[in-house]
Amino acid sequence: MKILFRKTRELETQIDDYLDIVERGALIFLQGVRLFFENRLDEFEVRYKDLRAMESKGDSLRRDIENKLYTHTLIPESRGDVLGLLESSDAVLNRMAKTLLNFSIENPNMSEELRPLFIDLAQSSTAAAENMVKAVRTYFRDLLAVRDLINKALFYEKESDKIAEKVKRIVFQKDAELSWKAHMRVFAHHIELIADEAEDVCDRLAIAVAKRYE
Amino acid sequence: MIWFFLLSGIFLGWSLGANDAANIFGTAVSTRMVKFKIAALIASIFVILGAVLSGAGTTETLGELGAINTMGGSFTVALASGLTVTWMTRAKLPVSTSQAIIGGILGWNWFTASPTDFGVLTEIISAWIFSPIIAALFAFILSKILSLMIKGMHIHLLRVDHLTRIALILIGAFGAYSLGANNIANVMGVFVPANPFTDIHLGEFMNFSGTQQLFLLGGCAISAGIYTYSRKVMVTVGNDLYKLTPLTALVVVLAVALVLYIFASENLQQLIVSRGLPPLPLVPVSSSQAVIGAVIGIGLSRGGKGIRYRIMGRISLGWIITPVAACLLTFILLFFVKNVFEIQVVK
User: Fold this and answer.
1) pLDDT in tens, chain A (214 residues)
2) Is residue B346 part of a domain?
């Protein structure tokens, strides 16, 4: 029983550490996007590498958590939901890392007019991800408070949809090459997808909360 | 010959352990919150402790209903009750050892033309009716308290899981103790008036009475039932009949344990009487029916949706069919035992 108690505390810490990684990942992503638009590409590359390192650390931590939950048959009624939440949160982190990778490889040529919009888009998507992480963290301790945080995350997801749509309309109204337009659209879509992934986590979370209320 | 006669009681004990331990540890084991090995060990120890230390109260009530005074009579009553339980279980009818043994005693009274104390019978029947109702009430209150605690205390899900495991073991131990105290009368109660064991004095202050030795034997039979067959029943109870989460199982087991305890504890009865309150009868009640009452209580605490009230009808059916069937079978078996095998069934 003592071993189990120690394992429980260890797991609590690991889950918190994992969520910290996703949350910090969102902040690094936003910082990276800003640095890219400020043309501080060396610093951008450092952020990108930091994010890749966090993603890899997050993966191994998540696997360890999953392994422990199964090995010690912990939280049998909620285990599936918790594993689903951790895996889908990982998808958010992966999406952010992939987006920075695309910036690093493709080096998109943004017009001055588009830069503040892309930063707004990145801010909204990051805010959705941050609130999603808070909601997941709260799920473990305070079910009643989860709903407010899910609502916030969904609000920012809608905001990022609106901003991405605005970007795409501006881009396609411009007299420019189709390849450039398509390139801009893809980048707007990539950033928007971060918020969409966060929305998926929130949908899962809402069901998991309802199940625990049963 | 004495040991042969006791076999029917041992069979009843085995059957009780095989079936009713699942009411205490079923969900805990089927959800893998508690390992079967641990559950079986704790259930065995505490069932035996409950039987030996607190089994006298319910046994006395059975003795008041009918004092079966020969081993042949006790053997036949226990055998008929055991066969009734087995037959009704196979026929998927609601059954309880507590109700079968009462039917068996009534059958013996009928066959031997011994008087039946209808006051005691009324007490017993009212205990059967009230036990699921009280379990529902306890479960309702406990469920509300637990829900408020979990919502208000903001404990981490993993810590809740950990505390639930500890509570399932502790409350399971109390449940097993109460099961032993309440239900040992079903297993060995009919053998008490014709008890073959004599008191053993261990030093100046320790006395191990013949009745306690009989109960120890019954407790060991229950324990054998737990180890040999209850795992299968635990998995079925945990998954098929009523799906409970570990937390709801905690509420159910505590409610059932309290019900079994209040209908078994002489100390509690003395305390109630000393406060000028009417005493509760000490009667063996059905743990399975108390579980159903507790599950309904939890359902009511959540607004009452999805409760299958028809199951209450099935419980009431069990109150009638089980004792009637056991009574008839006892009468028939006593006829054969007395006239064919020429064994004395009454003094």
Assistant:
1) 566 677 888 999 999 999 999 999 999 999 999 999 999 999 999 999 999 999 999 999 999 999 999 888 889 889 999 999 999 999 999 999 999 999 999 999 988 899 999 999 999 999 999 999 999 999 999 988 999 999 999 999 999 999 999 999 999 999 999 999 999 999 999 999 999 999 999 999 999 999 887 6
2) no
Task: Find which of B36, B38, B41, B156 to mutate to test the A interface (most A CBs within 10 Å of its CB).
Answer: B156
For A200, B28, B32, B254, B312, the CA distances from B245, given in Å and listed in that order, are: 26, 9, 11, 14, 22
Q: Can you tell me which residue has the tokens 């950033």?
A: A191
239-278 of B, contacting A, C-beta below 8 A: 245-246
Whether residue B169 is contained in a domain is answered as: yes
**Interchain pair B161, A8: CB under 8 A:** yes
Q: Residue B240: inside a domain, yes or no?
A: yes
How many angstroms from the chain centroid is the CA of residue B54?
Answer: 13
Option in B33, B157, B245 nearest A140 (CB): B157
| Angstrom distance (rounded) from CA A188 to CA B202 | 87
User: Which residue ranges make up each domain of chain A?
Assistant: 2-213
| Amino acid symbol at B74 | S
CA-to-CA dists, residue B19 to A189, B147, B231, B342, angstroms: 60, 30, 9, 34
Closest by CA position to B71, among listed B222, B215, B188:
B188
Please state whether B207 falls in left (phi above 0), alpha (psi between -120 and 50) or beta: beta
Site of tokens 């997941």? A136
Task: Quote ipTM for the complex.
Answer: 0.85
Neighbours of A165 (CB within 10 A): 12
Are the CB atoms for B78 and B104 separated by under 8 Å?
A: yes
Interface of B with A in 29-58 (CB under 8 A): 31-33
Rounded distance between C-alpha atoms, residue B223 and residue B212, angstroms: 16
CA A177 centroid distance within chain = 32
Fold of A2-213: Methane Monooxygenase Hydroxylase; Chain G, domain 1 (1.20.58)
Evaluate whether residue B140 is within a structural domain: yes
Q: Residue B29's domain spans which residues?
A: 2-339
Do A85 and A201 contact (CB within 8 A), yes or no?
yes
CB contact under 8 A, A4 and B158: no
